[in-house]
Design brief:
By secondary structure, this protein is α/β, with parallel strands linked by helices. The chain is 39% helix and 19% strand. The protein has two domains: 266 residues, Aldehyde Dehydrogenase, Chain A, domain 1; 184 residues, Aldehyde Dehydrogenase, Chain A, domain 2 (3-Layer(aba) Sandwich).
């Protein structure tokens, strides 16, 4: 596995030679020492991206798309290897990891097509003998700051639209998954992305975050992560009027109405709450139950969750792997303790596993909480991990009010056999994504995927909206007459 930065087409150690450890969350054992970048490495990466920008901007978009075609071929050949990287460094089950590896192929295929559809706009002009048209232009050097939970998917959702529209990129991945990011950069290199177009700097945000955000040659910042960090990025970027795209904290809800198909709801609720070890921004961390079915659902749900196998993510029988770090284990444990102190009750889990084979890893038992105040902080804050809260309600209006109470919302879900009930409920959700008779989950690459409230700012990085995120418009006029006349014609109607 590569352990260095990738700058201007070369693998490089950090400028000052420093490194930091990447750990296997299953065992706690060090996987490798990785380049720990400093401001000098950021400067070198931004300078490389700036040098590559003029030529890349002039490269016809269909030719940029051809490189993504080669990326797809390389990624398909290396899917198994990439999935094992993800399971080993992040702790996703192999099934989840293969989903990530396949998703970046889908993202590449989508943006390949967009490379041949970056259409201009033309409108009739009121100016005589003038032709006016508008085309998209790249913003320039884009900084992509990506999280650990979908380390390659989130990276490609930022990098692919950025480069297909003519930008160049400096990618700074989470310090928790540097080896996965380096593996992704290898795919770019093998696909023939020109030097300087995509650069990767590894390390801690405390060392290089400020330099990346405040660098005078950076033209756009795309960040996925914590709300408090996003606010700081937006404030500092705003001082230079640099556009930002922010995907921040979220709290989702899954509602099971009295007329729901309970088996379907149970299947989806279990998957939505505990897939990716609960470390998904679309996780169902609140399940809201109509009182008529609450007891039946709770008993069956408890049985299913207790049957989940916690263990090595490389074991195909494992349902829930480790969390990404010891710090994340402590964060979810604190969440559970605060919930209990506030009157909540643990139905299962609520602790680290005690079996010897899991003792050295960053594991947490799948957890169900009940009797939690639905308007308390612990019920409305995002904590990434295998835990969900159950809330009993008298009717659908109460369920919707509880679901919408979160300060940031991405996904909502409603289970009901009545399509009118389901659709009117989905319309009332204050979320960017609504699911009917499905669990809370992400979206497909070609559709908008955007939250609401304090989830973030900027347009979506998915689908057509990403074109607005990573480009600006330029309007050009051509005077094809040999006459000189004022630009604006006399348009008075009398």
């Amino acid at each position: 596995m590569k352990t260095q930065n990738y700058i201007d087409g070369e693998w490089r150690d950090a400028h000052d030679g420093r490194t930091f450890p990447s750990l296997n969350p299953t065992t706690g054992v060090e996987l490798a020492q990785v380049a720990r970048s400093g401001p000098a490495d950021v400067d070198a990466a931004v300078a490389a991206a700036r040098r590559a920008l003029p030529e890349w901007k002039l490269t016809p978009p269909p030719l940029r798309a051809n490189i993504l075609f080669r990326f797809v071929e390389v990624a398909q050949d290396r899917e198994d290897e990439l999935a094992r990287h993800i399971s080993t460094e992040y702790g996703k089950t192999l099934e989840d990891a293969h989903g990530d590896a396949q998703e970046i192929i889908h993202v590449a295929l989508y943006w390949m097509g967009e490379g041949r559809r970056l259409f201009a706009q033309m409108a009739p002009s009121e100016k005589r003998d003038k032709l006016g048209f508008s085309r998209r232009e790249p913003l320039g050097v884009v900084v992509a700051l990506t999280p650990s939970n979908f380390s390659i998917t989130k990276a490609t959702l930022k990098i692919f639209p950025a480069i297909i529209t003519g930008n160049t990129v400096v990618h700074k991945p989470s310090h928790e998954t540097p080896l996965i990011a380096a593996a992704l950069q290898e795919l770019f290199e093998e696909a023939g992305v020109p030097p300087g177009v995509v650069n990767t700097v590894l390390g801690y945000s405390e060392d290089i975050g400020d330099r990346l955000v405040e660098h005078p040659d950076v033209d756009m910042i795309s960040y996925t992560g914590a709300t408090d960090v996003g606010r700081s990025i937006a404030a500092r970027a705003g001082q230079r009027l640099v556009p930002v795209s922010l995907e921040l904290n979220t709290k989702n809800a899954l509602i099971v109405n009295a007329d729901a198909d309970l088996q379907l709801a149970l299947d989806w609720a279990t998957k939505s709450a505990y897939a990716t070890n609960g470390q998904r921004e679309s996780a169902a961390s609140r399940i809201i139950l109509h009182e008529d079915i609450s007891d039946e659902f709770t008993a069956a749900f408890l049985q299913r969750v207790q049957a989940l196998k916690v263990g090595d993510p490389l074991d195909e029988q494992t349902d829930v792997g480790p969390l990404v770090s010891a710090e994340q284990v402590e964060a979810i444990d604190d969440y559970i303790r605060r919930a209990v102190a506030g009157g909540g009750r643990v139905l299962c889990g609520g602790e680290k596993p005690v079996t010897p084979e899991l003792a050295d890893g960053f594991f947490y038992s799948p957890t169900i909480l009940t009797d939690v105040d639905p308007y308390s902080d612990v019920a409305l804050e995002e904590v990434l991990g295998p835990a969900t809260t159950l809330h009993r309600v008298a009717d659908l209006d109460e369920a919707i009010n509880i679901a919408n109470a979160a300060p940031y919302i991405l996904c909502m879900s409603i289970f009901s056999r009545n399509i009118e009930t389901a659709m009117t409920t989905a319309d009332k959700f204050e979320s960017g994504v609504a699911w009917i008779n499905c669990g809370t989950a992400g979206a497909e690459v070609g559709t908008p995927f955007q939250g609401n409230k304090a989830y973030g700012i900027g347009t979506t990085e998915w689908g057509q909206g990403a074109l607005d995120t990573f480009t600006r418009w330029k309007t050009t006029y051509i005077n094809y007459s040999n006459e000189h006349r004022f630009v604006f014609e006399d348009t008075r109607l009398r």
